[in-house]
């Protein structure tokens, strides 16, 4: 039931003066009415294979051409190539900051040519694996060595009150954590930081850009905008320091997004639960699917307790980034900081219909969206949409499983046991 959103904390010094703001006009498109729709459901009951060795925090799975998978664990600081047919696993690289090393391996994304891109927020870079999962060096996005975040105006028509200059965070831990996809051309997609620069200092933003970077040319562009859930970002700036915390709101009503293999960007809007598919060119209006009807689930004490239990079992890890300006230039230092399972300041009255952090694209161009569910409902459920935004079905998995990746005709999940250890599973899709 958790949205499984990462928590990031960025600390920087010194605090610099903010640029002047530009007046903006917001255009609002009226939503189409929700349509009641009955769709077929597929229930997954028996996996094709399960890896017997447990993970502490299985974060990413990428299927290779020969059927083996690259798997990452950000708590055990582990990258492995696993053969589910034989049960054998080979560790790739090791912990550290040198060549072919990593400190916090998270998402594992498929690059062209059977290569893999692994986000490493603590090292502020990506680990590259060549064909077959062999170490192939690292990739540092442009701006990662510059500790100061970039800024870009929020345009007219961006969802929410798009007023201000939004930090795009070229490089840095936030980009590593928000990198969601790589398309068939090898272009990398991530979301900007939910922070607006104002004359009074940094404030939580209402909208953030989805950004795309071409690794060959290092050129970037903005392909869509997301509405940020209110209260989910906390920004404090004083004494030359800035502290940012993201992911504080339980059951946050937020837009979700992913990228189809051909580069079309998918945004799932939370206001009326509909899917928008943006052109791969990054220009032009999106194809918009019909809104999905549904009754929001009330947040009772039972739902709150499930959230508390999941938070305690899977406490988020914060990334503390300290930026210092000195005579020799600007330097940055990152470290992992545990986050306590504290009670939120407030609870929403109801849950959104879907979890914004659980939006996935399959290799065949389907879109899977995870649904929120009541505490009494133990079965994870995902709506399935086609590339026009039309809901075509649902898929249902056994209790205590979550999606971690897709392959050729396959979907990979992490199954949690009673001790919250996680086991990699492969299912026929």
Helix and strand layout, with pairings?
Elements: E1 9-12, E2 41-43, E3 49-50, E4 58-63, E5 69-73, E6 78-83, E7 88-91, E8 94-95, E9 101-102, E10 108-111, E11 115-120, E12 125-129, E13 135-139, E14 151-153, E15 165-167, H1 172-178, E16 179-182, E17 188-191, E18 195-198, E19 201-204, E20 207-213, E21 220-227, E22 233-238, E23 241-246, E24 256-259, E25 265-269, E26 274-278, E27 287-288, H2 301-313, E28 317-326, E29 329-338, E30 354-361, E31 367-371, E32 381-385, E33 391-396, E34 401-407, E35 410-416, E36 422-428
Parallel strand pairs: 1-28, 2-33, 8-9
Antiparallel strand pairs: 1-23, 3-36, 4-5, 5-6, 6-7, 10-11, 11-12, 12-13, 14-15, 15-18, 16-17, 17-20, 18-19, 20-21, 22-23, 24-25, 25-26, 26-27, 28-29, 30-31, 31-32, 32-33, 34-35, 35-36
Low-confidence stretches: 1-32, 144-170
Helix content: under 10%
Number of helices: 2
Note the beta-strand portion. Answer: 35-45%
Shape: globular
What structural class do you assign from the helix and strand content? mainly beta
Give the CA-CA distance, first to last residue: 22 Å
Strand order in space, largest sheet: 22-23-1-28-29
Radius of gyration: 21 Å
Largest sheet: 5 strands, mixed
Oligomer classification = single chain
Secondary structure tally: strands: 36
Mean pLDDT metric: 82
Can you offer a commentary on this structure?
This protein is mainly beta. Helices cover 5% and strands 43% of the residues. It is built from two helices and 36 strands. It has helices at residues 172-178, 301-313, and strands spanning 9-12, 41-43, 49-50, 58-63, 69-73, 78-83, 88-91, 94-95, 101-102, 108-111, 115-120, 125-129, 135-139, 151-153, 165-167, 179-182, 188-191, 195-198, 201-204, 207-213, 220-227, 233-238, 241-246, 256-259, 265-269, 274-278, 287-288, 317-326, 329-338, 354-361, 367-371, 381-385, 391-396, 401-407, 410-416, 422-428. The strands form nine sheets. The protein has a five-stranded mixed beta sheet with strand order 22-23-1-28-29, with helices on one face. The protein has a five-stranded mixed beta sheet with strand order 2-33-32-31-30, with no helix packed on it. A four-stranded antiparallel beta sheet has the order 3-36-35-34, with no helix packed on it. A hairpin with a 5-residue loop joins strand 30 (354-361) and strand 31. The longest helix is centred in the C-terminal third of the chain and has 13 residues, at 301-313. The radius of gyration is 21 Å and the shape is globular. Mean pLDDT is 82; it is low at 1-32 and 144-170.
């Amino acid at each position: 039931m958790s949205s499984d959103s990462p928590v990031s904390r960025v600390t920087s010094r010194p605090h610099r003066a903010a640029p002047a703001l530009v007046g903006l006009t917001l255009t609002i498109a009226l939503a189409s009415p929700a349509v009641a729709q009955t769709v077929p459901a597929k229930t997954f009951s028996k996996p094709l294979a399960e890896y017997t060795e447990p993970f502490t925090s299985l974060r990413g799975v990428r299927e290779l051409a020969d059927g083996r998978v690259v798997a990452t664990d950000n708590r055990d600081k582990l990258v492995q190539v696993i053969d589910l047919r034989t049960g054998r696993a080979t560790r790739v690289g090791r912990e550290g900051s040198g060549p072919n090393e990593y400190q916090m391996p998270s998402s594992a994304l498929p690059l062209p040519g059977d290569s893999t891109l692994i986000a490493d927020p603590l090292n502020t870079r990506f680990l590259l694996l060549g064909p077959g999962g062999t170490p192939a060096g690292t990739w540092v996005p442009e701006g990662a060595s510059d500790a100061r975040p970039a800024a870009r105006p929020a345009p007219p028509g961006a969802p929410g009150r798009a007023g201000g200059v939004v930090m795009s965070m070229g490089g840095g831990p936030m980009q590593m954590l928000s990198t969601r996809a790589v398309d068939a051309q090898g272009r990398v997609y991530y979301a900007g930081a939910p922070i607006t620069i104002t004359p009074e200092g940094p404030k939580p933003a209402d909208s953030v850009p989805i950004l795309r970077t071409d690794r060959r040319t290092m050129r970037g562009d903005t392909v869509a905008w997301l509405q940020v859930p209110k209260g989910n970002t906390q920004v404090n700036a004083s004494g030359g320091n800035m502290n940012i915390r993201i992911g504080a709101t339980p059951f946050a009503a937020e837009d979700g997004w992913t990228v189809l293999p051909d580069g079309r960007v998918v945004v799932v809007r939370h206001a009326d639960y509909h899917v928008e598919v943006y052109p791969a060119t990054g220009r032009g209006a999106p194809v918009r699917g019909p809104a999905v009807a549904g009754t929001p689930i009330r947040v009772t004490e039972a739902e709150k307790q499930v959230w508390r239990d999941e938070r305690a079992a899977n406490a988020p890890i914060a990334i503390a980034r300290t930026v210092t300006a000195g005579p020799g230039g600007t330097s940055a230092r990152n470290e992992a900081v545990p986050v306590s399972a504290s009670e939120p300041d407030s609870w929403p009255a109801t849950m959104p219909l879907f979890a914004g952090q659980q939006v996935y694209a399959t290799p065949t161009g389907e879109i899977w969206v995870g649904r929120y569910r009541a505490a009494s409902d133990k079965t994870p459920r995902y709506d399935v949409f086609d590339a026009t935004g039309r809901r075509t079905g649902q898929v249902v998995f056994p209790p205590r499983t979550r999606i971690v990746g897709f392959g050729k005709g396959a979907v990979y999940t992490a199954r949690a046991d009673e001790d919250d250890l996680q086991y990699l599973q492969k299912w026929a899709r």
